[in-house]
Design goal:
Elements (H helix, E strand, L loop, with lengths): L7 E3 L9 E4 L2 E4 L16 E10 L2 E11 L2 H4 L4 E2 L2 H15 L7 E3 L2 E4 L1
Parallel strand pairs: 1-3
Antiparallel strand pairs: 2-3, 4-5, 5-6, 5-8, 7-8
């Protein structure tokens, strides 16, 4: 899709948050994980919310917010993770994203790209 002109590609199908990639200065989010979809998979208790700012002739700016989507806890109303839980989630995402060329910068309860 990037080769065809897309500024960003956003996926979700595996229901588990996966790393982000930077390809030709564009962002690819392979999976944001779950949002309100119920599952018994313990790896699917977190999701991601992205804020993309598309800019002419510049790579998109991306803010990444980790979410709790554990429906036993949040009752189908995703909640932003805060504090230690947010940092742990973002560190996992940073580890997944590093080999994909996405240099995430963690800022309190969110991450930034670039």
């Amino acid at each position: 899709a990037v080769d065809a002109g897309a500024d960003a590609v956003i996926g979700h199908h595996p229901h588990v948050a996966q790393g982000l990639e930077v390809y030709k200065k564009k962002v690819i989010a392979y999976s944001l994980g779950n949002f309100v979809f119920g599952t018994r998979n313990p790896n699917a208790d977190e999701g991601l919310l992205l804020r993309l700012t598309l800019r002419p002739r510049r790579p998109p700016a991306v803010e990444i917010f980790p979410l709790s989507v554990d429906n036993e806890e949040v009752h189908f109303q995703p909640r932003l993770l805060k504090g230690k839980a947010a940092k742990e989630s973002l560190l996992r995402l940073k580890t997944l994203s590093k080999p994909l060329g996405a240099p995430l910068r963690i800022k309190t309860d969110r991450a930034l790209l670039p």
